[in-house]
Amino acid sequence: MGDLASRLGQVDDALKHYENALTLYELNRDIIGKMNTFISLARLNAVQEKIDEAKSYYEQGFVLADSINFSSHEVVLSWRNEYQLLLAVEMHEIAPEKAQALADLLIEWVNTPNWDMSEQFLTENREKLLTEDAVQALHLLVMSNDSNQMLVQHQTILKNAIEHGIEAAYAPLKKSHLEKLQQLRQVFDHMQEPQQVQAVIAMWLMLGNRFLQQEDISHDDLKQFIADSELFVLPKAEESGEALLVNGCKVLLGWAYSRLHIQYDEQKDYPQALAAISKAIEYRPENAMYYHNRAVTYMDMEDYANALPDLEKAQELEPDAQRLPKLWKQYNDGIGESSHDDEN
Predict the structure, then answer these.
(1) 114 Ramachandran zone, left/alpha/beta (phi>0; psi -120 to 50)
(2) CATH 1.25.40.10, domain 177-343, yes or no
(3) What percent of the chain has pLDDT over 70?
(4) Mean per-residue pLDDT over the chain, rounded
(5) CATH placement of domain 2-88
(6) What pLDDT, on a 0 to 100 scale, did the predictor assign at position 43?
(7) What gap in Å lies between CA 86 and CA 197, rounded to an integer?
(8) How many CB atoms lie within 10 A of CB 162?
(9) Which of 49, 116, 196, 302 suits 55 as a labelling partner, its CA being 20 to 30 A distant?
(10) H helix runs in 165-233, sequence order
């Protein structure tokens, strides 16, 4: 709510929401929540040009990140870059015509559709964009657009490109979601305190959600994600005693096994497909779609006896689902054909 109010320019409301959030996070000992709220407060104050207050909130956020061994994570590193930009930007005047031309060029850069094209654009315009004037123009864009996250991210890229080169600035952005997950998986080995473990699990759930949102996931990558989640992350979540983290892991595993089921089903490897969707149901027994999908696989195998209980369960869980009439028609048509074949 605080972030929404901030984006709407309702500063007083945003501050109240952030203060309430900090109180709640303090009661629940939620370090991640407090850390994110401090960063939101830092950005809000930076937009209002309250630089000292912004610096203070950034620094409080970094203290919490250090306390859970999160200081080297890419999200926290991006916050540190924001902080350094806040310290480094000098509010020197740029001629209006030049400022507008740079702003137009920067917006075109920010709107490139992917990182490869973004890198190419920055390379082609390096003489204009790898400059202090461009840094200042981008800072003004950020301030005038309520710390828009895409603009903030490009602030970090621009700073790193100036300091370390364009290729180095883009290298972290080109890591696959699986690479980021595997990097995070290694962090578990260095976690000792329960709060540290919980923070890393929460980050795993966020990255895992992004991983599974991809349209094309290779079979091997999907199986690797399932193995890490099932054999390592879920047990850690269960040890933590945090029901929300346990449920989050089970939701992701159900989704992952459902994606695996689709892959096997497309290959007509029905035994593997059934095993995968059955695991999805094991983790998410309340998900009607998983019963629907298993019923379809059974009917593809002409195993209508096993399809029927899944059809009934899908209807019990979502009686108004629009897909049900089509599913029942497929079942009844299949039963009719099966009976006709038996008579012959």
Answers:
(1) beta
(2) yes
(3) 90
(4) 84
(5) 1.25.40
(6) 82
(7) 31
(8) 17
(9) 196
(10) 166-170, 177-187, 194-212, 219-228
Q: Taking the CB of residue 186, how many other CB atoms lie within 10 A of it?
A: 8
Which pLDDT score is estimated for 25? 79
In the Cβ-directed half-sphere of 227, how many Cα atoms lie within 13 Å? 8
Please determine whether the domains at 2-88 and 177-343 fall in the same fold group of CATH.
Answer: yes
Amino acid identity for residue 125 in this structure: N
- Give me the torsion for CA of 320, 322, 324, 326, rounded to 10°: 150
Tokens 């869980």, residue? 317
* CA-to-CA separations, 264 to 9, 104, 219, 260, 269, in angstroms, rounded: 50, 48, 9, 6, 5
Written as one string, the DSSP assignment of 61-109 is HHHHHHHTT-TTSHHHHHHHHHHHHHHH-------HHHHHHHHHHHHHH
Distance CA 326, CA 315 (A): 12
Q: Which helix (H) or strand (E) holds 218?
A: none
Identify which of 298, 308, 309 has the alpha carbon closest to the alpha carbon of residue 275: 298
Residues 177-212: pLDDT tens digits? 777 788 777 777 666 677 778 888 888 898 899 889
Gap between the Cα atoms of 122 and 137, Å rounded:
15
Going from N- to C-terminal start, the domains of the chain cover 2-88, 96-173, 177-343
- For the CA atoms of the chain, what is the radius of gyration? 26
Contacts of 300 (CB under 8 A, 6+ apart): 265, 268, 270
For 176, the enclosing helix (H) or strand (E) is none
Residue 336 amino acid letter: G
pLDDT at 313 over 80: yes
